[in-house]
Amino acid sequence: MGAALLTPGAAVVPYSDDLLEQTEWLAERIVESGGEAWVLPVSELRERDEALIRARVRTARDQEYDTLRTKARRQLTNRGVVALEHGFRSVVARDHFHAAGRARARRAIDSARAHRTG
Length: 118
Hints:
This protein has four helices and two strands; from the N terminus they run E-E-H-H-H-H.
């Protein structure tokens, strides 16, 4: 979902109707499994706290994009490029704050596709 971990048991995701629905569904599954979970919408954060959370989420996505770039440099098979594309779409879906590494990862995957051997 692209959450930023605040503590070992608390995370924050940006607000959207879709993410709210996903977190509520996840909380229901946790409760049904015997655990405890709450979805607590936050309508306002201090500017400094929001900036910190955004930076944390961007850093996490950048690390994922860097991993994809590293894999793309070594990937020369069609199957591997397909896996990279799937991984890229997965990271993009969680990249709520547009991490800087997205374009670099895209270029690396495109280059791997252009140089694949089959």
